[in-house]
Amino acid sequence: MIFAGCDVGSLSAEAALISNGSLLSYHIMKARPKPEASANEVMNSALEAAGLSWKDISFCVSTGYGREGIPFADDHVSEISCHGKGAQWLVPSVRTVIDVGGQDCKAIRVDSHGALVNFIMNDKCAAGTGRFLEGMGKTLGLDLEELAALALRSETPLSITSVCSVFTEIEALCMVNEGKELADIAAGVNQAMARRIKSLVARIGIEEDVCFTGGVAKNAGVVQSMEEMLGIAVLQLPEDPQIVGALGAALFAREKYGT
Questions:
Q1: Is the pTM value of this prediction over 0.85?
Q2: pLDDT band, very low/low/confident/very high, at 103 (cuts 50, 70, 90)
Q3: Nearest-10 Cα torsion for 255, 216, 131, 10
Q4: Virtual torsion, Cα 32, 35, 37, 39, nearest 10 deg
Q5: CA distances from 47 to 42, 51, 163, 191 (A)
Q6: Helix, strand, or coil here: 245?
Q7: What average pLDDT does the segment 189-215 reach?
Q8: What is the pLDDT of residues 144-166, one digit of tens each?
Q9: Alpha-carbon gap, residue 86 to 158, rounded angstroms
Q10: Mean of the per-residue pLDDT values for the chain?
Q11: pLDDT greater than 60 at residue 11
């Protein structure tokens, strides 16, 4: 049997297919303005990659902010539960999941079965989210990949003190105009983001092992800064960290089909 998960967020959409306890295929794409369009396109791509069709899906669960606008889903589950479920399935020792998405940041605690124990989310400010990095990249004239790679070359990261994402962009722009090295500014951006994430995680406590999920988990500079600030190693997941929500949704689809 084939079980599907579809995660539609503010910046990206992901789909994952599982069968017999294995990940069959997945796909990641930039989100369209309408959640339904994103969901259809990303699921079609995941099915094509597995050589399957829509009729092969036994049960589908949607997640993400657009989860209620996906007509082909049989049920929907919050992204918090899905990220916890997906991460713990990939690495059974995981107990704390840090999910940094396009518009929010979440710290999630799970048990040995991937069930939700506790969680906390940031407020509505963009600081500490994917949109924060996207905005800082535009300010520095860099895409997200360039921002991440450049930061790793810095030997003297600059301190960015503003707590508001808008003021942070202004602060970074002033540094550019002062002739500061872009690599040092980029590293300062990563550290500023890591500080915001650390303050959020500290409010529910950290239980090892810890992993990152979401698109920001691909930014090695942010992950490195988090490890330094937390004083622990962040586990690297065996699959793309951006698909964890969709994978968790597929796992919930398998559970719901069996009930």
A1: yes
A2: confident
A3: -20
A4: 110
A5: 9, 6, 42, 39
A6: helix
A7: 89
A8: 788 888 888 888 899 887 766 67
A9: 36
A10: 90
A11: yes
What gap in Å lies between CA 82 and CA 67, rounded to an integer? 12
- Residue by residue, DSSP assigns 182-205 as HHHHHHHHHHHHHHHHHHHHHTT-
Which amino acid appears at position 207 of this protein?
E
pLDDT at 194 over 90: no
Q: How many CB atoms lie within 10 A of CB 218?
A: 15
Instruction: Take residue 45 and report the two structure tokens written for it.
Output: 């791509």
Tokens encoding 144: 């997200």
- Sole residue written with tokens 């968790």: 248
How buried is residue 192: exposed, middle or buried, by Cβ count under 10 Å (0-12/13-18/19+)? buried
254, amino acid identity? R
Residues recorded for the chain? 259
CA-CA distance, 61 to 221, in Å (whole number)? 33
Across-strand partners of 25?
17
DSSP 3-state assignment of 236? coil
Enter the tokens of residue 155.
Answer: 């030997």
Alpha-carbon 162 to chain mean position: 24
Beta-carbon count within 10 A of 31 CB: 22
**From CA 150, how far away is CA 187, in angstroms rounded?**
8
Strands (E), 89-131: 96-100, 105-110, 116-121
Q: H or E stretch including 136? A: helix 130-140
User: What would the DSSP string read from start to end of 67-85?
Assistant: GGG-TT-SEE--HHHHHHH
Q: Are 249 and 59 in contact (CB under 8 A)?
A: no
Q: What tokens were used for 35? A: 């959640």
Domains of the chain plus CATH, in order, are 1-91+242-259 (3.30.420.40), 93-236 (3.30.420.40)
Both tokens assigned to 235: 């586990």
